[in-house]
Amino acid sequence: MKYLNLQINFTLILLITLGCKKDSGPEPIRDVQEQTLVDDEALVRYLQTHFYNYEDFESDSDNYKIEISLDTINEENSDKTSLWDQVQTKTVVLNDREGNEIPNKLYFIEVKRGVGDSPSSIDSTFVTYRGSLLNGNVFDYRQLPTWFDLTSVVRGFREFLPELSAGDHTLNNDGTYDLDHYGQGVFFIPSPLGYYSQNLSAIPNYSPLIFSVELHKVNPADHDKDGILSRDEDPDGDGNPYNDDTDEDNIPNYQDADDDGDGINTRVEFDRDGDGIPDDDDNDGTPDYLDQYNT
Question: How many domains does the chain have?
Fold first, then answer.
């Protein structure tokens, strides 16, 4: 009997241990391609069943106090034009862990273009915005403008902002500013263009996101202070400064004070004669600041 009890107890302990092992440990990160498809289906369903307050903007186009709001289409407002019938699409290609290219669709509506300059995806922007989930829960809301370096925000945010232009501003007698004629828009992104597998307090992992944004000002950035705007540190000309690393030191050119790694700072090599044209002393077609063999 004692032997039987020991055997039963051992069996129970083994089952409990196996059960704990099965449930322990973090969830494996989901396949990006599969999650992209799941998120896109969710976004399309949302866009087909919701609308924004476009009539408010149409009836009072000069009123910059109107905020973008979203609502569900139902029997009482079935005549509303859905988001799906108004959005534009932008494809953003990401690479998974194996290096495979995964296209992600960003959906957006440019409600008001704005009258000023448009940022690049690497500039600093002065914005107000609201971020929410597809269920309507708001996870971030900035009513007062704040500066955002677009290198530090989620991919979808920095991919959308160049679709808008900044506004203008008027200085009041009390030292405050009136901001007008700025760009307004709303965009919808799958989780790979947002926070993906991160489980944040107000954003569950693998959540598609919605942002409505007002773009007030743009400041072209020079992150490495080498005298070349970060947006122009794009030697391959593909419009993406993030992937340019001339000396292959794992520091992109826009953050690298010595782009070609020859020991001479880019600021020194760029334009010694001050004529506004990058120097190329050996006339090989490669500017000195990108030519490690010409010092």
Answer: 2
